[in-house]
Design the sequence.
């Protein structure tokens, strides 16, 4: 059963995933980064692509099932955590900053969604 | 550790008040204004004494953070796969020019402040028949003491190739010197006719003393019982004529063994004219049952007259080597003072992690060397030496016992590491090879690799990088080897044939199924010693392992190939690590003060020079497949911004 969910923060996650993806492309092809052609960068790039897809769904499909909402929220959080750890070991502060941005977006979305749900519940009780 | 100290404490007294004096540094001048003569770096080790020391003081611990890339070039000489390049060159700075050789045997002459090419010489030696791959450690430079005015080739640059040819060109123009060999090429390979199983590799540029080049060569180890026997040549620097040959293996052993060659750098004392040769191990490297007779010059440091090849002294640093623990780096020459008396010394760093500090005029130890008992071989036909030289002071760079199994690697491989360790023979240092497999620690990669250490001759501070690597070697009986591998000389699983001997062998890195080291880190350290006392100043994990782009913790260190240099201002510059970074380190504390990323691991020591009042530090970032697959052709110079 679908219901409306918050789209708040989704655009921030989209922005963060685009930044992470762009920096991955730069790192992958630039010798000075020390990460040229490395599997670790490919991994983060893949994670950024998945995050982009998930956050696009968050932004563009406000009416979605609770199951899908839960899947997206958990997936994006795992993506953020994994990419942050990867960014740490890649010694890439920009990737870590992008993930911090994504985390802010994720929190905005989760808190916003909870707030919206709370208002709906309050409405029913009234 | 305390045992080592206890055993050696009595030997410390004579060195307690020692100070160090400068060896002649006649080619180095103080840095100064633009019209001052530049400080040169005219030999692989900075000077012929292999000190790797620069008196330049512009870059200091206080300002090194501001170091920026001044220029870089890409030589174009890089390839991977079957013809992978291994470029461990230290560029030279002489004749107001930066010179470097490449793994495809080109010589580049560059402007020292811009990297712009002055000329390029193509030796054209590569025909794809190099049996040891495409390798180069740079070039040598010679200048006539009495140059003939207006004549070419009064200053020459030499590059060797991997098919045994030495090319000599004019240092000003890059044109071949017609009077050197045949049209500028000496076919050194042609001089070696006994058991000539393969073409010799002239990886390491020759040492230079007056008008003599002292040249060793690299061999194709592990594949035959009898191989090209080790020889060192004295060559006329002008004509390429052979002046002398030093045969390392006794003539009556030539049908039993081979190699024991000098493939690493050679150092020269300009005062005495002695050349110091680090002699490698004999073939077959991991089974010595057919070569039990004493061969005094193998695995030794040997001093010869640079102009005649006559042996002055020799000190064997490992007896009856069955671990391929070549003596593998140019001895570093430095004068020590004891109670005001000058002691002409050398430091021989080794794969075993021992630092032999010897009187370079006599070969006698300055710090005591003990003969310690080691385990017997359990392999039929093999007789391991009952004792081996042990150097308690300076403290060895690696421990005597194998590092414990890594819990992380063991858990993630479901106990693979500990099960493997339980199967094999491990009695620490000098555990003989066996049929069930033996731990090799320190392994054939060291300990200290071929770069050796650097010394500040004004203080006696000696800095060296050292690896902590565990390998496993397993002898394979001939019948079994022939059945499994046929006539193959090598196989991808680490097998090498040692054809003609009773055993082939397999050498494997002690890694788990995921490629993680099964032993505990650190995998590499940087160490500083006070040679006046033999005491360790500091020891720190050095570099970082990088896998799939991920950097492992700094406390793990990195396996290293390459070497440090020291500057008078109190800095150590070094590449060497797996993470393709170059670093500046505080000589006093060992702390990293600056680092930069280059295109591949810089697997030789950098060169330091001054030109027009500016100090440059130049690295060849060539990489080495032993460390990582990342290879490059980048030569990069760093300097402070204007």
Sequence:
């Amino acid at each position: 059963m679908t219901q409306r969910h918050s789209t708040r923060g989704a655009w921030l996650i989209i922005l963060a995933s685009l930044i992470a993806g762009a920096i991955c492309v730069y790192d992958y092809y630039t010798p000075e980064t020390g990460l040229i052609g490395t599997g670790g960068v490919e991994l983060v790039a893949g994670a950024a692509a998945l995050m982009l897809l998930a956050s696009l769904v968050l932004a563009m499909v406000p009416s979605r099932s609770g199951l899908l909402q839960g899947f997206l929220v958990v997936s994006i959080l795992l993506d953020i955590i994994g990419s942050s750890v990867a960014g740490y070991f890649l010694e890439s502060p920009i990737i870590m900053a992008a993930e911090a941005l994504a985390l802010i977006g994720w929190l905005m979305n989760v808190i916003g969604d909870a707030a919206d749900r709370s208002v709906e519940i309050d409405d029913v009780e009234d | 550790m305390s045992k080592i100290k206890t055993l050696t404490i009595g030997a410390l007294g004579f060195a307690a008040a020692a100070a160090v004096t400068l060896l002649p540094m006649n080619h180095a001048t103080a840095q100064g204004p633009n019209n001052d003569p530049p400080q040169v770096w005219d030999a692989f080790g900075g000077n012929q004494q292999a000190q790797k020391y620069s008196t330049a003081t512009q870059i200091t611990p206080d300002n090194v953070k501001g170091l920026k890339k001044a220029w870089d070039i890409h030589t174009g000489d890089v390839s991977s796969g079957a013809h992978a390049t291994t470029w461990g060159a230290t560029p030279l700075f002489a004749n107001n020019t930066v010179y470097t050789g490449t793994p495809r045997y080109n010589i580049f002459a560059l402007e020292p402040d811009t990297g712009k090419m002055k000329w390029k010489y193509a030796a054209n030696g590569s025909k794809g028949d190099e049996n040891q791959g495409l390798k180069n450690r740079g070039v040598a430079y010679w200048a006539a003491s009495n140059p003939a005015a207006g004549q070419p080739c009064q200053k020459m640059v030499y590059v060797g190739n991997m098919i045994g040819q030495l090319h000599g060109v004019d240092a000003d123009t890059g044109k071949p010197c017609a009077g050197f060999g045949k049209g500028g090429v000496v076919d050194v390979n042609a001089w070696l006719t006994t058991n000539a199983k393969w073409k010799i590799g002239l990886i390491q540029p020759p040492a230079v003393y007056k008008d003599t080049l002292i040249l060793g060569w690299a061999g194709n180890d592990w594949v035959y019982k009898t191989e090209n026997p080790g020889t060192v040549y004295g060559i006329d620097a002008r004509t390429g004529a052979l002046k002398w040959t030093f045969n390392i293996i006794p003539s009556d052993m030539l049908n039993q063994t081979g190699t024991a060659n000098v493939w690493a750098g050679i150092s020269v004392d300009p005062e005495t004219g002695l050349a110091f040769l680090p002699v490698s191990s004999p073939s077959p490297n991991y089974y010595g049952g057919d070569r039990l007779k004493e061969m005094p010059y193998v695995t030794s440091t040997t001093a010869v007259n640079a102009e005649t090849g006559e042996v002055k002294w020799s000190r064997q640093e490992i007896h009856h080597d069955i671990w391929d623990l070549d003596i593998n780096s140019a001895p570093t020459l430095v004068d020590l003072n004891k109670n005001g008396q000058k002691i002409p010394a050398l430091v021989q760093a080794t794969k075993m992690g021992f630092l032999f500090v010897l009187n370079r005029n006599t070969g006698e130890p300055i710090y005591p060397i003990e003969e310690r008992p080691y385990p017997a071989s359990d392999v039929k036909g093999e007789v391991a030496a009952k004792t081996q030289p042990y150097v308690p002071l300076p403290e060895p760079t690696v421990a005597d016992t194998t590092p414990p199994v890594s819990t992380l690697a063991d858990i993630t491989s479901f106990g693979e590491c500990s099960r493997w360790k339980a199967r094999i023979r491990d009695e620490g240092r000098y555990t003989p090879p066996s049929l069930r497999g033996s731990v090799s620690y320190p392994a054939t990669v060291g300990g200290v690799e071929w770069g050796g250490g650097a010394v500040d001759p004004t203080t006696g501070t000696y800095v060296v990088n050292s690896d902590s690597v565990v390998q496993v070697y397993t002898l394979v009986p001939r019948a079994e080897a022939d059945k499994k591998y046929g006539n193959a000389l090598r196989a991808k699983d680490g097998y090498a044939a040692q054809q003609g001997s009773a055993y082939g062998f397999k050498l494997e890195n002690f890694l788990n199924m995921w490629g993680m080291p099964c032993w505990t880190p650190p995998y590499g350290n940087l160490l500083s010693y006070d040679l006046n006392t033999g005491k360790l100043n500091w020891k720190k994990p050095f570099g970082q392992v990088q896998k799939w782009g991920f950097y492992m913790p700094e406390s793990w260190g990195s396996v290293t190939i390459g070497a440090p240099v020291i500057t008078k201002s109190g800095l150590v510059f070094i590449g060497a690590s797996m993470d393709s970074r170059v670093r500046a380190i505080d000589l006093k504390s060992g702390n990293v003060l600056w680092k930069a990323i280059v295109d591949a691991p810089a697997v030789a020591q950098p060169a330091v020079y001054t030109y027009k009042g500016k100090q440059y530090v130049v690295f060849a970032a060539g990489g080495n497949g032993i460390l990582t697959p990342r290879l490059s052709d980048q030569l990069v110079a760093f300097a402070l911004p204007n």
